[in-house]
């Protein structure tokens, strides 16, 4: 039965509820519309996109309902993404590198390590940050109501959540994404780890196989290798970090291999089994078969105590009844949107990981803000994705912004680029940290900086000079004519620009 109430139409948890048709529910809701709670914007989600949208909507004076389900308030970044992974990567670095000092004058030391203590400290960090950056924030947002509940569409303007039907002038879907199980024989019968469960382990596995050599896979591979696990990484594409420049991928793989991580790239996972607590993976390598001129793919058996899946994601949209709202989805449940984050239902918008563009916390937040503003004001704002930087927080780090030379060739039919190895940078030589490189991509006619790709210590911090160059269409001369502090790693960007105009191998450090 349906009861009217001050908070909207209440759907009792009685057997009859499951037998109502969509039309009957929405008709009863309309009959008692006077008792329904109406919001200017209903936001489905509680992560970066949702919070940025709620903040902007509050600034605009809107009445907002946030409905979060799944991960705790704050979403991926604070709970199972950016914050805890960077913390544990730092823990691993403090354990690993003292055993392998860079300088001959420093004696190696072997710190003790307690995985349970590391996980506990990570949990404390997450709880503290979640409280200060999300719980306290949403409580201070004027006009914003937050509830923990599943939600589903009854129509484009009606959302069932927390046992209540809410009417919405506009809706923003910001439900994020999660690991997608691989359609590999045996995978459904094997206990595998995700980024969430891997950071809940209480005992360090002797060995681990990581499926996927994207940012997530490589960060977890180095994290557990630094903790002391024997790690093997499998990647179906011909290189690690498939979306990065080949030079970047090759350099990072070389650095990680020097630390003991093994790689199998260009391989296909054929089947997975679990016996006596161990995982057995059969992988095929067509490239190896071609090199050896054999008749078929060469198969290899790999065994490990733990299996971490980092090779695919799906949008968290499967339980939203999007069809009731007329919202169209694409592969793996990602919501189809136009340039202004509007879905196929004119009053429904979507932002963040659930739209499947750039899955970054920063991008989700910016998309959420723009989507809320577009929905509430009728503006048509969008994000310049070419000037959005991204990073991989391995050591050395990878950071990139703008076009690769392949993308430049696709768009312009020509390309111009230079690669400078970090060993050419005086600061890198001084601190004996020469792993890495800087690659710069420029417009072949105008010399505008179109892309910069870095492998280096602190690359995620260094890249922002390049971000400004790409965003504001600076030229090579703009970079060269800017005085940089000497000696710094950021001079690598200037050296890459100078490499277009001179032979930097015979250039003094003093040349401006």
Report on this model:
This protein has 512 residues and is an alpha/beta fold. Helices cover 32% and strands 24% of the residues. The chain is built from 17 helices and 23 strands. The strands form five sheets. Strands 1, 2, 3, 4, 5, 6, 7, 8 and 18 form a nine-stranded mixed sheet that branches. A five-stranded antiparallel sheet has the order 19-20-23-22-21, with helices on both faces. Strands 12-11-10-16 form a four-stranded parallel sheet, with helices on one face. Helix 4 (82-96) packs antiparallel against helix 5 (115-140) and helix 4 packs parallel to helix 7.
Query: Which structural class matches the secondary elements?
Result: alpha/beta
Low-confidence stretches: 1-35
The proportion of residues forming helix, as a percent range, comes to 25-40%
Query: Could you tell me the strand content as a percent range?
Result: 15-25%
The rounded Rg comes to 26 Å
Query: How many helices does DSSP assign?
Result: 17
Distance between the termini: 78 Å
Largest sheet: 9 strands, mixed
Overall pLDDT confidence:
91
- Please state the overall shape, judged from the principal axes of the Cα atoms: globular
Number of strands: 23
């Amino acid at each position: 039965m349906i009861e009217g109430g001050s908070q909207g139409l209440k759907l009792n948890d009685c057997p009859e509820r499951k037998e109502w048709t969509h039309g009957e529910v929405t008709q009863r809701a309309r009959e008692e519309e006077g008792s329904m709670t109406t919001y200017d914007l209903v936001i489905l989600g509680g992560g970066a996109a949702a919070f940025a949208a709620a903040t902007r909507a509050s600034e605009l004076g809107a009445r907002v309902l946030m409905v979060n389900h799944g991960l705790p308030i704050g979403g991926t970044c604070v709970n199972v993404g950016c914050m805890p992974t960077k913390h544990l990567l730092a823990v691993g670095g403090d354990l690993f590198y003292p055993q392998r000092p860079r300088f001959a004058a420093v004696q190696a030391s072997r710190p003790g390590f307690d995985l349970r203590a590391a996980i506990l400290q990570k949990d404390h960090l997450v709880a503290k940050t979640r409280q200060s950056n999300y719980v306290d924030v949403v409580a201070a947002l004027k006009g914003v109501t937050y509830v923990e509940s599943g939600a589903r569409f009854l129509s484009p303007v009606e959302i069932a959540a927390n046992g209540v039907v809410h009417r919405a002038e506009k809706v923003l879907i910001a439900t994020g994404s999660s690991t997608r199980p691989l359609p590999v024989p045996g995978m459904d019968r094997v206990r595998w780890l995700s980024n969430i469960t891997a950071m809940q382990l209480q005992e360090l596995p002797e060995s681990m196989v990581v499926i996927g050599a994207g940012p997530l896979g490589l960060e977890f591979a180095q994290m557990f290798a630094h903790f002391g696990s024997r790690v093997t990484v499998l990647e179906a594409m011909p290189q690690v970090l498939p979306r990065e420049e080949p030079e970047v991928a090759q350099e990072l793989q070389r650095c990680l291999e020097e630390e003991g991580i093994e790689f199998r790239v260009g391989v296909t996972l054929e089947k997975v089994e679990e016996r006596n607590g161990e995982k057995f993976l059969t992988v095929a390598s067509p490239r190896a078969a071609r090199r050896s001129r054999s008749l078929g793919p060469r198969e290899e058996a790999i065994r490990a105590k733990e299996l971490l899946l980092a090779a695919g994601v799906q949008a968290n949209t499967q339980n939203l009844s999007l069809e009731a709202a007329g919202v169209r989805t694409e592969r793996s449940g990602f919501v189809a949107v136009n340039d202004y984050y509007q879905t196929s239902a004119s009053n429904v918008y979507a932002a963040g990981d659930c739209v499947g563009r750039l899955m970054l916390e920063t991008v989700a937040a910016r998309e959420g803000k723009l989507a809320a503003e577009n929905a509430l004001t009728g503006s048509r704002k969008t994000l310049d994705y070419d000037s959005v930087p991204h990073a991989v927080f391995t050591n050395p780090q990878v950071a990139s912004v703008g076009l690769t030379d392949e993308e430049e060739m696709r768009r312009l039919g020509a390309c111009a680029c230079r690669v400078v190895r970090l060993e050419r940078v005086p600061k890198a030589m001084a601190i004996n940290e020469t792993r890495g490189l800087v690659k710069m991509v420029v417009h072949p006619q105008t010399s505008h900086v179109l892309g910069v790709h870095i492998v280096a210590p602190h690359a995620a911090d260094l890249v922002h000079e390049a971000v400004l160059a790409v965003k504001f269409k600076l030229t090579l001369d703009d970079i060269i004519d800017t005085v940089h502090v000497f000696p710094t790693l950021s001079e690598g960007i200037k050296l890459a620009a100078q490499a277009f105009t001179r032979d930097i191998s015979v250039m003094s450090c003093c040349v401006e």
